[in-house]
Design brief:
- The structure is a homodimer of 257-residue chains.
- By secondary structure, chain A is mainly α.
- Chain A has one domain: Farnesyl Diphosphate Synthase (Orthogonal Bundle).
- Chain A contains 14 helices and two strands.
- A two-stranded antiparallel ribbon of chain A has the order 1-2.
- In chain A, helix 8 crosses helix 9 and helix 9 packs antiparallel against helix 13.
- At the A-B interface, helix 5, helix 6 and helix 7 of A face helix 5, helix 6 and helix 7 of B.
């Protein structure tokens, strides 16, 4: 469990959760159990994704993936353990119980069959055949977007933000979520294996539909820039103490790993 | 997910949760989301336990196990989905938020590395070598006992019961939990495959330590009876409307599946 969650990683979901809580007037200490929980959910999903019966990936973040390092059985249980620990940690929140309960429901919904797991299922169903663009956007929205959206919404909810704020935060997360996934598609073609910590070209090899196969590299890059601009503008709806989140939003668009 | 959770099964955990909520003056409607949640957690654990990298079991409750019916990948995700759905369902509880949050934490703790999953890990570590009795009791306490204890405690907590009631409920669950597991050990030797819905003799085949290998069939049966008596007496601490739970306690000791 530690190997899967405490290694390298950008901690984007945790950072977004803490920052949006702060932007809505909450304290980040209040949001910390949920920030940890969302990283555990993310880590569990990577451990199970890498398993032989899933993507059969031997490498993750530049190290042997969990099953490669500890065996399949231990990796299965470590993933199960992290998903469970996420809810154990979040339910220990000291936020007002009604807010904590609402936040827990957002977390569970985003990770489940109508969120991340549902996206995973679509992904597997179309592994070796072309996926229509509409479904690709939906799949990305569930597989990557759902947890990012949960992160910002949970931050807002824990701070007691109004519906308006939650709406704009959600819009923001949808933009950067799609941009994030398109950047992944681009990096799988143009990326540096050393910086990425995983082999490139795997999408093409497995015949996956991506934004790069649907459009061109240039067109995909333009979409990332447009989405990032829109996301940046949505940040104006919040009163920020500093420029941290604007900088983060820009940096995600030009990331190399 | 439906195949794994809606098939045959005794629903012991759900029934205990609902009954203890009622015994502490709560309404069973209030406890229903948690009763569903705990059955989902139980069902997920069975799906993952049966996987090829775990027990490699082709049969469950008289039907092909989930991976045998739908393939390994789908079974993995169905288990993940049920675990997630459990917390989604429980967090939708209409109980007072502070009680719901406390109940959620009990559920997560009982299922995680200090509970059910931890027991699973001990079990796997000793798969082909003898286990000392002390560790066997601890392993049973975690693998089967933790979720049964969670069931009764959650029922009490949702009803707003005092610490005393929760303590006696927990004691009760510990007794029937151990008895339940010893009966499993006995049925693996004396059971009827048709009634059980799974092959017998699997413990002996895999060289597992059980209460039957540690003692004799007769001695194990005596322990079941003693534990059941103790459990029955603990029920006197609660004011029951009817004899249902007393009958259930007795029936669990003489069950054939």
């Amino acid at each position: 469990m530690r190997y899967g969650v405490l290694g390298a990683g950008k901690r984007v979901r945790a950072i977004l959760l803490l920052e949006f809580c702060r932007a809505c007037g909450g304290s980040w200490e209040l949001a910390m159990p949920f920030a940890c929980a969302i990283e555990m959910v993310h880590a569990y999903s990577l451990i199970h994704d890498d398993l032989p019966c899933m993507d059969n990936d031997p490498l993750r973040r530049g190290k042997p993936s969990c099953w490669k390092a500890f065996g399949e059985t231990t990796a299965l249980l470590a993933g199960d353990g992290l998903l469970t620990k996420a809810f154990e940690t979040a339910s220990g929140s000291t936020a007002p119980p009604d807010r904590a309960l609402a936040a827990l429901q957002i977390l569970a919904q985003s990770a489940g069959d109508t969120g991340m797991l549902g996206g995973q299922v679509i992904d597997l169903e179309y592994e070796n055949r072309p996926m229509p663009e509409e479904l690709l956007v939906r799949m990305y929205g569930q597989k990557t977007g759902a947890l990012l959206r949960a992160a910002v919404k949970i931050g807002c909810v824990l701070a007691g933000a109004d519906e308006n704020k939650i709406f704009f935060a959600d819009q923001y997360a949808q933009k950067i979520g799609l941009a994030f996934q398109i950047v992944d598609d681009i990096l799988d073609v143009t990326g540096d294996e050393q910086a990425l910590g995983k082999p490139i070209g795997s999408d093409q090899e497995s015949g996956k539909t991506t934004f790069v196969t649907l459009y061109s590299l240039e067109e995909a890059q333009k979409q990332v820039e447009a989405l990032t601009d829109e996301a940046r503008r949505l940040l104006d709806k919040f009163a920020w103490e500093d420029e941290f989140l604007c900088t983060l939003t820009d940096r995600l668009a030009v990331r190399k790993n």
